């Protein structure tokens, strides 16, 4: 088992490896004519970029001093660390980062979009932590609403559930579904209280009395699976199970998939919807990348 000293030594080795990968030009420093004994940035250059003294940085790298959280943040920026490298740096230092995680990333990976497109008999979409609809497959658009026709700023499941009559009418128990969404959204505020997308959504939801009452009740929930009953104008009544899958590479994006019991009328209804969706176009995922701030 590692000791604190072992971690500080590993932290120093990690810092050396990261500064060896950079050159002055990459980080905006003028290169000098003095030959470099080793590749990468010198200690004094890292210290300059992090706005700390060379002696301070040297002692951190040599494992003789435990860096403070602000210094670790400065070093992470100076060394251009990605999210995983930054997390590793703080773990080695025994310091939890005090900067909140970045708000939800909106770009959905191509392989995730491909997965959605290949789910031809199961409606599926990708939601952010704030329940923005980031991507969807053709059957989700057929079952719910055509998200491609919704302006990007309105493409949020909570917003649509309260404001789109067609989506609202699909729900057998709209109050239970909407209240569960509000509870999920309230859970998000603990992780990203300053997310500008969340603030904007809350401001826009101000006129809705039901939303305000449930929001003030401060109910919280993160439910990964459940059951929904929809009344669809084409497929009839659909009793569907839903599951939420979270990608390890994009933990702030959640794939929601609806399925029906094999052999049930609901499965037949989904197949009818799938046939209608296929007749309207290819099975390629129609959703464009979402660009929300």
UniProtKB/TrEMBL annotation:
Q: Which domain of life is it from?
A: Bacteria
**What residue spans carry the region label Disordered?**
263-293
Domain (HTH cro/C1-type): give its ranges.
Answer: 36-86
What SUPFAM superfamilies does its record include?
A: lambda repressor-like DNA-binding domains
| Coiled-coil spans in chain | none
Gene3D superfamilies linked: 3.30.450.180, lambda repressor-like DNA-binding domains
Matches recorded under PANTHER family: BLL4672 PROTEIN (PTHR35010:SF2), BLL4672 PROTEIN-RELATED (PTHR35010)
Q: What is this protein called?
A: Helix-turn-helix domain-containing protein
Species per Swiss-Prot/TrEMBL record:
Streptomyces siamensis
Q: What is the lineage of its organism?
A: Bacteria, Bacillati, Actinomycetota, Actinomycetes, Kitasatosporales
């Amino acid at each position: 088992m590692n000791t604190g000293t072992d971690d500080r030594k590993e932290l120093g080795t990690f810092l050396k490896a990261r500064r060896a990968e950079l050159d002055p030009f990459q980080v905006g420093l003028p290169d000098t004519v003095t030959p470099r004994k080793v590749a990468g940035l010198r200690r004094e250059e890292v210290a300059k970029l992090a706005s700390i003294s060379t002696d301070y940085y040297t002692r951190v790298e040599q494992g003789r001093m435990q860096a403070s959280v602000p210094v670790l943040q400065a070093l992470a920026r100076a060394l251009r660390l990605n999210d995983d490298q930054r997390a590793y740096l703080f773990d080695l230092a025994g310091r939890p980062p005090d900067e909140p995680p970045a708000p939800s990333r909106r770009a959905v990976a191509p392989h995730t979009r491909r997965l959605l497109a290949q789910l031809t008999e199961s409606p599926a979409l990708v939601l952010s932590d704030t329940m923005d609809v980031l991507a969807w497959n053709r059957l989700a658009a057929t079952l719910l609403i055509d998200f491609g026709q919704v302006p990007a700023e309105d493409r949020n499941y909570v917003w649509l559930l309260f404001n789109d009559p067609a989506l609202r009418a699909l729900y057998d128990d709209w109050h239970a579904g909407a209240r569960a969404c509000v509870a999920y959204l309230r859970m998000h505020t603990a992780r990203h209280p300053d997310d500008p997308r969340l603030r904007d959504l809350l401001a826009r939801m101000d006129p809705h009395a039901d939303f305000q009452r449930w929001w003030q009740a401060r109910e919280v929930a993160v439910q990964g699976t459940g059951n929904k009953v929809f009344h669809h104008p084409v497929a009839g009544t659909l009793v569907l199970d839903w599951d939420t899958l979270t990608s390890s590479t994009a933990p702030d994006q959640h794939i929601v998939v609806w399925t029906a019991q094999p052999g049930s009328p609901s499965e037949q209804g989904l197949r009818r919807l799938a046939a209608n969706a296929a007749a309207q176009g290819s099975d390629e995922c129609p959703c464009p990348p979402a660009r929300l701030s």
